[in-house]
């Protein structure tokens, strides 16, 4: 259990939970819409299996993200299994995939893990060593607008790659990017036109000259329904940064729904008009040592009981350690062990199953309804 860092994740079980993430940018683009699908959507799992897989993905994500130094600079979203009811490394992925197309005149489909913990946008192409994906890999030679990025380009030198350099013969930008779970992608940096389907049966938005990685050697833990990763971090090569949008947001449906949910790059004009109440916001904190999105968490309350930890327990430290992040690749909230056990003890007084049938590390679910006078505590349901 990590001691200093706290990873605060967005729960995908909440219907249409929208979180606005502020980013610095020199200009703003009109809002673009992308479709998000849950990684297990349409795969025939029961609700219990979906919950177990969700928990397994979150545990694996934390293990890889906060692993010892030397296991990779980024944090690829690691996920759960192909076989029903099992947990393995064959189908690890993130919680959500985004869908759009690359190239002209016939845009080619990509399905990328949405990862707020990294910057590079990449998909498989010219495969030498690759993982299986459900549709053909990208063919840049079939696009009339694709071109290689020079190794003398500033983004090649300044990108947050593990390694970058010049290809022999054509001076194109070669890169290697590694992740916290030891997954690695190596390839060439390209520039091409991206097409975003704005809404079902809606007009597509076409954006030229966006940079992405063409991954030729891709090894490690990747899912069978993804073709790469879409970095949504603060770095210059991330999708929000390249689009120069000041904000992005995503809405999550429950894990048992098969329909897609939207992600917006930029702020839709009608967002405020469609809100059912006043929009809530909280400031993000910058960490000079990281491109992650940090929150200023002050405390945790269970029911009406405030846990006995002040804001310093969750605060970002001067050396860049500690702090609370929002992470797209995990569904569960992870906290230091002392905070977790205090929360469990407080919950056990409100939920009969925690005090009689579970331990602090049990994965059994509990109906955590508030206690009411003359009413029994809610029973535990597996």
UniProtKB/TrEMBL annotation:
Residues 1-29 form the signal peptide. GO terms for cellular component: extracellular region. Residues 96-382 form the Peptidase A1 domain. It comes from the Eukaryota. One of its GO terms (biological process) is proteolysis. One of its GO terms (molecular function) is aspartic-type endopeptidase activity. Gene3D superfamilies: Acid Proteases. Keywords: Aspartyl protease, Glycoprotein, Hydrolase, Protease, Signal. It holds the Pfam family TAXi_C. The keyword Hydrolase applies. Belongs to the peptidase A1 family. This is Peptidase A1 domain-containing protein. It comes from Triticum turgidum subsp. durum (Durum wheat).
